[in-house]
Amino acid sequence: MHINKIVNIPSFALSHWLLRIPLAIVFIQQGSSKFPVTLEDAEVYELPYLVWWFVAYGELGAGFGLIAGGILLFFKNIWINIGDVITRFSGFTIGCITTGVIWVSKPESFIDVILYDNLHVFLWVGGLYFALRGSKT
Questions:
Q1: How far apart are CA 89 and CA 59, in angstroms?
Q2: pTM of structure
Q3: Which residues contact 75 (CB under 8 A, 6 or more apart)?
Q4: Is the peptide bond before 36 cis (omega within 30 degrees of 0)?
Q5: Using 50, 70 and 90 to split pLDDT, how confident is the model at 12?
Q6: Residue-wise over 17-52: b if at least 16 C-beta within 10 A, else e?
Q7: Within 10 Å of residue 113's Cβ, how many Cβ atoms?
Q8: Alpha carbons 94 and 123: distance in angstroms, whole number
C-alpha cells in the first residue's frame, strides 16, 4: 500500500532550472566583471591576453547559453535539439574554465581542492552535469 503512494509522487519536470539559473548567474557575473578585457588584467593572473579573452567571453557565453538552451526546450521540433547542444556546449565550457581556474590557483593536492575550494568544485560539477546530461533532464 505504501509503495503505491511512493510511485505516484509527481515529478517536477522543470527542476533543472534550479541548477541552471544560479550557475548561469555566477558565470554571467564573473564574465561581465572582466570587461573591458585588458592585457593588464591578464598579466595579474599570469595568463596570455588571448586566454584571458577566451575566459571572459567563454564565461558570458556559457552563462547565456545555459539560459538559452533551457528556453529552447519550450519550443518544438529541431529547437529542442539545438537547445540540447547549446546546453551541452555551455556545460563543457563551464567545466573547462573552472578546471583552468583551479589549475591557475596551483593547489598543493587534489584533497586541498576538494576540501578548501568548494565553490569551484560545485561549479565544475554543475558544468559536468549539463555537459553530460544536456537539456534532457
A1: 12
A2: 0.87
A3: 83
A4: yes
A5: confident
A6: beebeebbebbbebbeebeeeeeebbeeeebeeeeb
A7: 17
A8: 7
